[in-house]
Design goal:
It is built from eight helices and seven strands. By secondary structure, the chain is an alpha/beta fold. Bound molecules: nicotinamide-adenine-dinucleotide. Nicotinamide-adenine-dinucleotide binds next to helix 1, strand 2 and helix 4.
C-alpha cells in the first residue's frame, strides 16, 4: 500500500475529482478528511471511505472562509493528530456560464472567482502548513486547469487564478523543500464531473459538447474521468515521487500537444448558449 496510515485532507471531496482522489487514497491505506460545502454530501463520501475499512471524517467548511478553515484543521488534528497530505482540489466556475471575458467581466465576479480558486487554496495551505512543518513532512497537491496555460474559452478570472496556482506551487516548493514538504500541481484537462453543471446542463447537449471537445481538443480523444486524475494525485502523494517537487503534471489526455482554440471555439459555443 502506497499510503499506509497516512492522513490526507482533500478539499471539495464530496464530488468529482476530489471524491475520486479520496477513494484512490483510501484504497492505498490512507485515512481521510472529506471537506465540502455540504456536510451531508461530505458525510456520504466519508461513510463510503469507512466502508473500505479506513478512518474518515466529514467537515463542512468553505475554503474562502478563514474561521471555517481553522475549524477544519483543528477537527483534523483532533481526530488524527496530523495531516500528511493536502489536496487543494475545491474550486470551479459556479455562476460564470458565458461570462468572464473582457466584454462582460465585473470586478465583483473577479473577486469571487479568484477568492475561490486562488486565495482559498492559499488559505487552506497556510492553515495546514504549521502542522506539516512540525512533523518535517508533507505532500501538497494543487489543482490547476488547462485553461491556465492553453485557454480555448476566455474566462479571465478563473484562468488567471488557476495560473496563479502554478506560481504558488513553484514558490512554495522552493521555500519548503528543506523542510521535506513537497509541493506539486496537477493540470487536468476536461473531466466529466459536476463542474460542468455550472456551464451546460447534463444530457444530450453536454454529450455533444464533450464529443466535440474529445475529437478536436484532446489527443487521446476522450473526456477524462475522476480516476484519471486520482492516479497522478496518488503518485504525487506517495513515496513514488520523493524526488519530485515544484512540478506541474498535465493529466489532460495529451494536451497541450495540439494548438487549441483554433480548431474548436468553445467560447462561441457557450456564448451562443447563454443568448438562447
Ligand atoms: N472538471 C473539469 O473539467 C476540470 C478541468 C480543469 C480543472 N478542474 C478543477 O478541478 C477541481 C475539481 O473539480 P471537479 O471537476 O471535481 O468539480 P466538482 O464541481 O465535481 O467538485 C468540486 C467540489 O468542490 C466543492 N466546492 C466548491 N466550492 C467550495 C468551497 N468554497 N469550499 C469547499 N468546497 C467547495 C463543490 O461543492 C464540489 O463538491 C476544481 O478546482 C476545478 O476547478 C476541473
Amino acid at each position: 500500500m502506497l499510503l499506509k496510515d497516512r492522513v490526507a485532507l482533500v478539499t471539495g471531496s464530496a464530488n468529482g475529482m476530489g471524491r475520486g482522489i479520496a477513494h484512490k487514497f483510501a484504497e492505498e491505506g490512507c485515512d481521510l478528511i472529506i471537506n465540502d460545502l455540504s456536510l451531508d454530501a461530505a458525510q456520504k463520501v466519508a461513510d463510503e471511505i469507512k466502508s473500505r475499512g479506513r478512518r474518515a471524517i466529514a467537515v463542512k467548511a468553505d475554503i474562502t472562509n478563514v474561521a471555517e478553515i481553522e475549524r477544519m484543521t483543528e477537527a483534523a488534528i483532533r481526530e488524527f493528530g496530523r495531516i500528511d497530505i493536502l489536496v487543494n482540489n475545491a474550486g470551479g466556475v459556479p455562476g460564470t456560464a458565458g461570462r468572464g471575458n473582457s466584454d462582460n467581466i465585473t470586478a465583483e465576479e473577479w473577486d469571487r472567482v479568484v477568492d475561490l480558486n486562488l486565495k482559498g487554496p492559499f488559505l487552506v495551505t497556510m492553515s495546514v502548513l504549521p502542522h506539516m512543518k512540525k512533523n518535517n513532512y508533507g505532500k501538497i497537491i494543487f489543482v490547476s486547469s488547462m485553461g491556465a496555460v492553453s485557454p480555448c474559452v476566455s474566462v479571465l478570472h478563473y484562468h488567471t487564478a488557476k495560473a496563479g496556482i502554478l506560481g504558488l506551487t513553484i514558490n512554495l516548493a522552493f521555500e519548503l523543500a528543506p523542510k521535506n514538504i513537497y509541493v506539486n500541481a496537477i493540470v487536468p484537462g476536461p473531466v466529466d464531473t459536476t463542474f460542468w453543471d455550472a456551464l451546460v446542463p447534463a444530457g444530450p447537449e453536454r454529450e455533444a459538447l464533450f464529443d466535440a471537445i474529445s475529437r478536436k481538443e484532446v489527443p487521446l480523444e476522450r473526456i477524462g474521468r475522476p480516476d484519471d486524475i486520482a492516479g497522478p494525485a496518488l503518485f504525487l502523494a506517495s513515496g513514488l515521487s520523493n524526488y519530485v517537487t515544484g512540478q506541474i503534471l498535465y493529466a489532460a489526455g495529451g494536451q497541450p500537444i495540439l494548438a487549441h482554440g483554433a480548431t474548436f471555439n468553445i467560447e462561441a459555443y457557450l456564448m451562443g448558449r447563454a443568448k438562447k
